[in-house]
Amino acid sequence: MKVKKWVALLLAGTMALSAAGCGGTKDTASSSADESRVTETAANAGENSQAAETNAENSNYGGTLKIGLQNAIVHLGYVHTGLGTSEAMILDTCCEHLCRYAEDGTLTPWLCTAYEEDPDNLTLTVHLREGIKFHDGSDFNAEAVVWNWQEWTNAGNIELNCVDNYEIIDDHTVVVHLSEWSNNIATSCLYTAGIMVSAEYAKANGTDALDKNPVGTGAFKFEEWVVDEKIVFKANEDYWIEGLPYLDGIEFAIIPDEAAQISAFQTGEIDVLLNCNSDASRTLKEAGFTPEAKSLISGGMSFMFWFSCQDDGPMGNVDARRAVCSAIDKDAIVNYIKENSGAVIERTAQWGPNDVWSANPDLKGYPYDPEAAREYLKAAGYPDGFDMIIYYGNGGDDEEICSLAQSYLAEVGINAKLELIDSTITNELSGINGESFNGMIFSAGRAEVDLTTYYNRTFLPDGVRWVNQVTHEEDIVELINLATTCKTFEEKEKYCQELSKTVIDDYCELMPLYISSDTIFTHGNLVDHGIYQINAIIWTPESAYLTR
To answer: What is the residue-wise DSSP string for 354-377?
Structure first.
């Protein structure tokens, strides 16, 4: 299969969002390429400018969009440390990527104008858009791009580990030279590590200052962050797309209390509610509001339990983990959520959606079977059960899901204690310094189709996410390397399917529950916002407007 066709199949519908592009080990061999690929964009600034002129005639300028959030915000502007979903979405208000994703999953140039992949010569050439400045007045150019890529790697991320060096051809052309081929390199450079912040601001003020004061190229400039209260942006009058943005400003209101958040929405204090749980969705639907939910092939969120597999207690025993999985009626829990949520929900036993190329049809995922759970307990050496902990966060239906899981576990003798934790503790447990514990944590990640885009960050020894909670089995590492460095789509499909079954069926490292589209409630007057239309992070603040 030609590389062009492979890439089209790979990208279409995948939304490979957290791509870990160079995760393979250095001794992995690579074969010759079929051909190099050139990708250019038709969605340029001129077309956006025409759209702006059309809306200008409709008098859609003005107003401040207020968006309600429950989650506390810890990091904001220093993108290289890795951000939570809400943090990344907020940052998208003022900072932009070299490429965005179209609805069909195609990686589409944004701050760049084109890119060329050459597997034979191990290069990625990136052509940058001219005439753009960061909010501090510094130039967006090749030097700034290379600084962002280097900073990404210096912060401990692994996506660009296969890069040998960066060659700046001129102010608007960069060639990325690789030490080995990676079929995710474009996604890694242009999207995952492709969100651009001002290098000049960071050098002059330090990354701690940048974290509190994001400086990007976007349609809105950061103005104020009142911790645990609000984050405010104002329109960028010098935005590089003429005629945009429409809004005067955007404000994110942090409202942890669910009742207070619903009240603020119903009274019109906020225009948008994000990530409502089932109870909140039901309340708002009964009040006459209609949720906006889109069924996404990918880009939704994958909800699952992560086991602390490196712990010295029961969770370090694969049969104990199998007992936990078999004891919980996952179908019943998901059906409960589906009945009450405004989201589009799909039950899945693997990381990504069920009907995509990486899904393994032979994966079983430990169906509900209490008797099998008891047999696994005996095999693990815990015939009478054991004690464990379930961590969960303050968001969505987390508490209800974990309470249901707790009740099922009790039926086979497993005593699970529930403990609410905030995002700071979640980040610590899932980070590179996270300590193991005797239990599991309920969490969500982007529903990747290309498994290497997330598994690289976790199951490789030099990973950065959940790396101290999972095991790093040799066969898992080998499959990740093969899936990342192969040069045909058929090979990647084969390795990803094997990888899915190995992680879940063989080693029981995690317990997927379901994939959910993200849901928002609006008052019906917010247009062209792009929120949750492609994934949980990307939106289009530059084109959003409020109708009168």
So the answer is: SSSTT--TT-----S-HHHHHHHH
Domain count, the chain: 1
Is residue 370 in a domain? yes
List pLDDT tens digits, range 489-502.
899 999 999 999 99
- Could you tell me the CATH number of the domain that includes residue 448? 3.10.105.10
Which domain range does residue 479 map to? 301-516
Contact 157, 19 (CB under 8 A): no
Per-residue pLDDT reduced to its tens digit, 141-170: 999 999 999 999 999 888 899 999 999 999
Residues 424-470 pLDDT 10s: 888 888 887 888 899 999 998 777 778 887 888 889 888 878 888 99
- Assess contact for 272 and 67: CB atoms under 8 A: yes
In a domain, 490, yes or no: yes
Percent share of the chain, pLDDT over 70: 87
Q: Is 134 exposed, middle or buried (0-12, 13-18, 19+ CB in 10 A)?
A: buried
**DSSP strand E in 130-261: where?**
163-170, 173-178, 195-196, 220-226, 230-235, 249-254
From the list 56, 72, 128, 74, the residue with the least C-alpha distance to 96 is 128
Residue 100 lies in a domain: no
The whole-angstrom separation of Cα 212 and Cα 290 is: 35
pLDDT in tens, 509-521: 999 999 887 778 9
Whether residue 191 lies inside any domain: the answer is no
Q: Do residues 445 and 518 make contact, with C-beta atoms less than 8 angstroms apart?
A: no
Report DSSP letters for 379-445, one per residue.
HHT-TT--EEEEEE-SSTTHHHHHHHHHHHHHTTT-EEEEEE--HHHHHHHHSTTPPP-SEEEEEEE
How big is the chain, counted in residues? 548
Burial of 226 (0-12, 13-18, 19+ CB in 10 A): exposed
How many Å apart are CA 424 and CA 330, to the nearest integer? Answer: 28
